[in-house]
Amino acid sequence: MGGVRSRPLWVLVALGLAIRVALAFAFRGTNHILIEQIAASGVRNWNWHSVYESGGFIEWTYPPLFLGWLAGASWLSDATGLSFHGLAKLGPSLADVGLALAIYVYLGWRGARERLRLAGAALIMLGPSFIAVSGYHGQIDSVAILPAVIALMVWERDTSPNRALWAGLLIGVGAAVKLPPLLLLLALLGSARSWREGAALVGAALAVLLVTLGPLWVRGIDLTHVVRYTGVPGWGGLSLVVDPAFGWHSLTLSTLPPRPAHGDLAQTIQDNARWITAVALATYMGFVLRYRPATVDAAALLWLVIYAFSPNFFLNYLAWGLPFLIMAGFLVEVAALEVLLIAPTVAYYVALAPSSAPSTTTGVLYVPAMIALWVAWLVATLAVARRIVQRRQTDVTPLQSPLVSLS
Predict the structure, then answer these.
(1) Chain center to CA of 65
(2) What is the DSSP string of 305-347?
(3) I want to staple 365 with a disulfide (CB 3.0 to 4.6 A). Which of 18, 153, 211, 347 is the partner?
C-alpha cells in the first residue's frame, strides 16, 4: 500500500499498537477469551464438533477463518509461556493498524491534507472504542472489516473489468472471519456498471464463504449458530430502547426481570429480528438504487441503517461502520462519538469482567448513553440520506463532510 511514509503516521501507529499490546498482555479481558481458547484447542485437536457444538454460550458462532490465528496463538503460548489472551489479541490489534493505514491512504486519494489524513488514522489507533475492543476485549470485528474496507478502495480505484472479482473476494475473506462484511455488497451494488459486474461481485464473495464453510457442512458440523445468530438483546439498539429494564439488569446484575415476557414488545422484536433487519436493508437498497450515491457515502449510510434499525447492538459493532464514516469525511462526528462513549465503554467492560460485582453505577453510565446513541444513529441516518438526495439534485461530487473539508 503506497503513500504511507509519513513519520507522524508511524508514530501514531506505534503508540496505538503499544497501548493495545500492553492491555492485551496485562488483562485477560472478558469471557470471550475463554471461547477463543476452547475453539483454538478444538482446532489443534482437529475436533471441529467441539468448536461449533460445545453448547451453551461457549461455541464459536463465526466462520472459521480466524481460527487459524487462534490455533497459532495457542501453540505459541504453549511453546513460549506467553499468555494466550495476549497473543490472541494481537490479531485484532494488527487489524486496527491496517485500518489506520487504509484510511490514511484513502483520504489522501480524496485530496485531504496531511493533518486530516493523520486525524483519520488517529481515530482508529487512538480511538478509545477501537483500543478497548482490540486490546482488552479481543473481539475480531476489526479483522473482519479490514478486507471490506480494502474492497471498497479497490472498487473505487480499479477501472479494470476485474474490480468486481477482487472486491468480492476481499469481502468474502472478511465474511469468512465474521459475516457482517457481506452487507457491504449492498453498498457496492449501487455503483455496479452492469448486472454482470454485480453478479460477479456477489458470486466472488459467496465463493469464499463456500470454500470456508462448505467442508464443515460436509462433515456434518452444525453451523446453525453461525448463519442464524442475531445478537443478544438488551445491550443496545432497539431491544434496549423498548426495554431499558432488561439492559439495566444485564449491566447491574440486579433483581429486575432477566428476560422480556412472552408477547412483550421487546421479545416480539427479538423474535422478528431478521425480518426487521431485512426490511431496513430492502428500504436501504431501494434508496441506493434510486439515488446512486458515491460508494463511500453508500457504505456510511449502510452501517448507520444497521445501527439504527437492527434490534441488537454491541459496542464492538462500532468497528463495522466507523472506518467508513471516517472515509466519508465525518471526522469531527466520529471524534465526538468516541469521546462521548468513553464512560459507557468503561461501564460495559467493568460489567463484563469475570470478577465483576453488582453495581448500579455501570447501569447509570451505560443505559442512558446507549439509548442516546441509538437516537444519534437515527438522526445521522436521516442526515446522511438527506445529504445524498441533495447531492443527487445538485450533482455535487461528494468530497466533504458538512463539518470537515477534505480539500
Answers:
(1) 16
(2) HHHHHSS---GGGHHHHHHHHHHTT-HHHHHHHHHHTHHHHHH
(3) 347
Whether 95 and 306 have beta carbons less than 8 Å apart is answered as no
Compute φ and ψ for 62, nearest 5 degrees. -125, 165
CA 78-79-82 angle, to 5 degrees, is 70
Residue pointed to by grid coordinates 513460549: 80
Q: Which has the closest alpha carbon to 65: 207, 165, 172?
A: 172
DSSP symbols for 8-23: HHHHHHHHHHHHHHHH
CB contact at 8 A, 12 and 121: yes
Query: Distance between CA 291 and CA 310 in Å, rounded?
Result: 23
Residues 171 and 184 sit within 8 Å (Cβ to Cβ): yes
Cell numbers that stand for 329 in this block: 469525511
pLDDT values of the chain reduced to their tens digit, one per residue, 407 residues: 557 789 999 999 999 999 999 999 999 988 889 999 999 999 999 999 889 987 656 789 999 999 999 999 999 999 999 999 999 999 999 999 999 999 999 999 999 999 999 999 999 999 999 999 999 999 999 999 999 999 999 999 988 889 999 999 999 999 999 999 999 999 999 999 999 999 999 999 999 999 999 999 999 998 988 888 777 788 889 888 988 887 777 677 654 445 555 447 777 888 888 899 999 999 999 999 999 999 999 999 999 999 999 999 999 999 999 999 999 999 999 999 999 999 999 998 988 877 766 678 888 899 999 999 999 999 999 999 999 999 887 765 444 444 444 43
Given a contact cutoff of 8 angstroms between Cβ atoms, the answer to whether 232 and 249 are in contact is: no
Q: Are 182 and 297 in contact (CB under 8 A)?
A: no
CA–CA distance, 69 with 91 (Å, rounded to integer)? 7
Q: DSSP secondary-structure letter at 137?
A: I
Q: Which grid coordinates belong to 140?
A: 475480531
C-alpha cell at 304: 448507520
Measured in residues, the chain has a length of: 407
CB 340 within 8 A of CB 369: yes
Quote the DSSP letter at residue 133.
I
